[in-house]
Amino acid sequence: MIIISLFSNKKVRFEKIIKREKGMALVAAIIFVAVLTSFAVAILSMTGDDSKLSTLHRESTRAFYLAEAGIEKALWLLNTPVSQGGKGIKWRTTVPFVEGNSEEYYEVMVETTTIPSPGVPEIISIVSKGVVTGNGKYDKGTRKIQVNLRKGISPSPYTSYNYAIMTYAEDSNLEFDGHVKIEGDIHSNGDIKGNGWDPDKDVDGNISYAGDNTVITGENVSPTVVESYPSIDFEYYETNATHVYDENTAYDIGGGVLNGIHYYKGDVTISDDLLVIGTIVVEGDITVHGQPDITLLPDADISVVMANTGNIYLDGNVHIEGIIHSEGFITFNGNTNIEEGAVLAADGTIHGTGSETKIVYDVIYQEKPVPGTGIEVWKKDSWQEI
Predict the structure, then answer these.
(1) CA 130 to CA 141: how far, in whole Å?
(2) Where are the domains positioned within the chain?
(3) Among the four 15, 60, 79, 294, which has the fewest Cβ within 10 Å?
(4) d(CA 304, CA 344)
(5) What whole-number distance in Å separates Cα of residue 338 and Cα of residue 344?
(6) Is the pTM of this model over 0.85?
(7) Which has the closest alpha carbon to 341: 360, 368, 369?
(8) What angle do CA 67, 71, 75 make, to 5 degrees?
(9) Four-residue CA torsion sign, 47, 50, 54, 60
C-alpha cells in the first residue's frame, strides 16, 4: 500500500510538472512570435525609411542640379547681347526668371549687390532655386545657390577698333572745335557737335551717331544705332607689364624713353619730352601739359599705346601711332597728330587750336581683334549654397 501510494504521489507531481512545462512552452512561443513580429516590423520600417531617404536624396540632388542649371542659364543671358538671343550685361530681375515644368523647374533672381565707385567694382548676384515637386509624398526637393559676379574682359572676334574716333557712352557728346582733320570714319553712341568745323571738308570718311541731338549736317553724316565696342583688359596688361608702379601715387613720367608695358596705379602727368615704345596703362587720369614733345609707338605685338580708367588731357606736341583708349573723356588741345591709329573714349572733345589736329585711321584695325581687349562679361567671383 505504501508503494502504491508513493507511485501515485509521483504521478501526480509528474502531471503537474508536465502541465507547468506546457504553460512555459506556450509563453515562450508567444514571446518568440512577438519578437519575430517586432523584428519584421523593424525591418519593414527600416526599409521604408531607407526608401524615403533614398527618394529625398535623389530629388534633392535633382533640385541641386536644377539650381546649377539656373545659374549657368542666367550667366549666359547676361553675357549674350539681346541681338543674339540674350538679355545683355545690364539685365536685372524684379520678379523670378523661371524655366522648367510643373514637376521640376528653377527660379532665378539677378540683382546688383555693390554699386561701382572709385576703387570698388560693381558686383551682382545670381540666386537660383531648383525645385522638384513630384506627385508622391516624398518625391520633393529644393536647393538654392548664390553666385556673386564681377566684370571681366573676354576676348571676342566681334569687337574691334573700326573708327578713327569713337565715343561709346550713349549720353556722350563728341565735339569738334576748330581745325580738326579726320581721315577715317567717325561714330558716337550719343551725339556729335561741331564749332568752326565742316564735316564735308574736314572728314574723309563717314560720320554716324546714335543720339537724338546731333546738330551737324553733311552728305557724309547719318543716324544709326548704338554699336558695340572693345573694352580694355586691365588685368591682361598688368600681368604682362614690364613695370608695375605702386597704387595711390601720382607720377610725372616725362623726360626719357619707356620700353614695354608700363602699368601705373595712380594719376600720370607728362610735362617733359617722352618717347614710349610700347604701352602706358593708367588706373586714373593722364595729363599732358607744358608743351612737351611726346611720341608713342606700338611695340611688335600690342597696338594699344595709351589706355586708362579715368580721363585723358592732351596738351602739347603729341605724335601717336597706335590706339588711344580711355574709359573717361578725352580732350585734345594743341598740336596732336595721330597717324596712324584710332581713338576710343566714353566721351570726347577735340580742339584744333593753334596748329591743326589730325587723326588718320589705321586700316589694319578694321574688323580685327586687338590683344588685350575684348568684351565686358560677368565672371564668377564666389559660390555658395544657401
Answers:
(1) 8
(2) 1-152+376-386, 165-368
(3) 15
(4) 11
(5) 12
(6) no
(7) 360
(8) 165
(9) positive
Residues 6+ apart with CB under 8 A from 42: none
The residues facing 341 across adjacent strands are 322, 361
Q: Please list, residue by residue across 323-340, b when 16 or more beta carbons sit within 10 angstroms of its beta carbon and e when fewer do.
A: bbbbbbbbbbbbbbbbeb
CA 69/CA 75 separation, integer angstroms: 10
Residue 6 has pLDDT above 50, yes or no: no
- The H-or-E segment that residue 332 falls in is strand 312-361
- For 310-354, the pLDDT digits (tens) are 999 998 888 899 999 999 999 998 788 899 999 999 999 998 765
Alpha-helical runs (H) found in the chain: 2-79, 199-202, 234-239
Whole-number Cα distances in Å, 310 to 165, 242, 299: 18, 22, 23
Q: 163 with 175: CB under 8 angstroms?
A: no
Q: What are the backbone angles phi and psi of residue 80, rounded to the nearest 5°? A: -115, 125
- Whether cis (ω within 30° of 0) applies to the bond prior to 367 is no
Return all residues near 211 (Cβ < 8 A) that are at least 6 apart. Answer: 170, 171, 172, 173, 188, 189, 190, 191, 192
State the DSSP code for 57.
H
Higher pLDDT, 138 or 87: 87
Order of strands, edge to edge, in the sheet holding 141-154?
97-100, 104-114, 123-132, 141-154, 373-385, 231-232
